[in-house]
Amino acid sequence: MAFKDWNINDLAMSLNAVPLDAGGYADDEVLSLEWAEDQFGDYIGADGEVSRYRTNDYRATATLRYAHTAAANDRLSGLFIADTNLPNGAGAGVFSARDQEGRLVILAERSWIMALPAIKVGKTVQVYEWKIRLARAQATFIGGR
């Protein structure tokens, strides 16, 4: 059996061509992706016959977690401010995350920051969670190394 390893520094991420992978990550979970709806649903009739249907809903929410000291917070804040000041959603753009040494790929051509994160200030370093809406994350491949 082959030896496999993982290094968080192999994760490349960007939004609107702005790199978000320069470090300053939270202590463990850095990126999570949750689908808005299942891609398939089912229907059962009164007679027990089951039909399956495709929802065609590829919306997802990517949550990025950074220490409040990370430079990525400045970049994401700038992107959010630009988006709120541009007309007709011109601030929405491509989100990309991929494992450069593996086969994980998350890609959506239309993505945006949903809201500013909750602000936490305390004795120690806090974590900011940025939620990015992916309008159509169809190019997602969940692969290993």
Distance between the termini: 13 Å
Residue share in helix: 10-25%
Proportion of residues in β-strands: 35-45%
Annotation, overall tally of beta strands: 9
Poorly predicted regions are none
Q: What is the name of the CATH class? A: Mainly Beta
**Total domain modules:** 1
Written account of the structure:
This protein has a single domain, classed as Elongation Factor Tu (Ef-tu), domain 3 (Beta Barrel). Helix content is 10%, strand content 39%. The chain is built from one helix and nine strands, in the order ββββββαβββ. The strands form two sheets. The chain has a seven-stranded antiparallel beta sheet with strand order 2-1-7-8-9-6-3, with helices on one face. A two-stranded antiparallel sheet has the order 4-5. A hairpin with a 2-residue loop joins β1 and β2. The model has no long low-confidence stretch (mean pLDDT 93).
Secondary structure layout plus pairing:
Blueprint: E1 11-15, E2 18-19, E3 31-35, E4 40-44, E5 50-54, E6 60-67, H1 71-85, E7 93-99, E8 105-115, E9 127-134
Antiparallel strand pairs: 1-2, 1-7, 3-6, 4-5, 6-9, 7-8, 8-9
Structure summary:
By secondary structure, this protein is mainly beta.
Key phrases:
mainly beta; 39% strand; 145 residues; Elongation Factor Tu (Ef-tu), domain 3; 1 helix
